[in-house]
Specification:
The chain is mostly helical. It has four helices and two strands. It is flat, with a radius of gyration of 25 Å.
């Protein structure tokens, strides 16, 4: 087979892969494999999905005597839905808002005397 034909086939395969392989993205931060993206509406939606998956595991643990469902895999997905980094930001925002409220109360209290 001529070299030109092989190059054309390889280019076609690369274009086909680029166009159609959308579900998995290489994990460049840890070089551990791929990341599968799941579309959610917002953070609340992701937490409700996590909650539903936990409930599913609870039902499966009670109903699945033969352990045909790999609950570890489901629970690992649940952990990925929990927005730990975002919760840290919410904690910081709460502290800022509380300190702002305290400062406003001091200012208002000082102005009333």
């Amino acid at each position: 087979m001529p070299m030109k034909t092989n190059i054309n086939k390889l280019e076609s395969l690369l274009q086909l892969a680029e166009t159609n392989f959308k579900m998995l993205c290489r994990d460049n931060t840890h070089n551990t494999g791929y990341i599968a993206a799941i579309k959610v509406a917002n953070y609340s939606d992701s937490l409700f999905i996590a909650s539903d998956l936990i409930k599913l595991c609870m039902i499966a643990m009670n109903a699945d005597e033969n352990h045909l469902i790999n609950l570890t895999n489901v629970l690992e997905i649940v952990l990925q839905f929990l927005p730990f980094e975002e919760m840290e930001v919410l904690d910081e925002l709460q502290e800022i808002l509380e300190s702002n409220e305290e400062m406003e109360e001091r200012i208002i209290g000082t102005n009333n005397h």
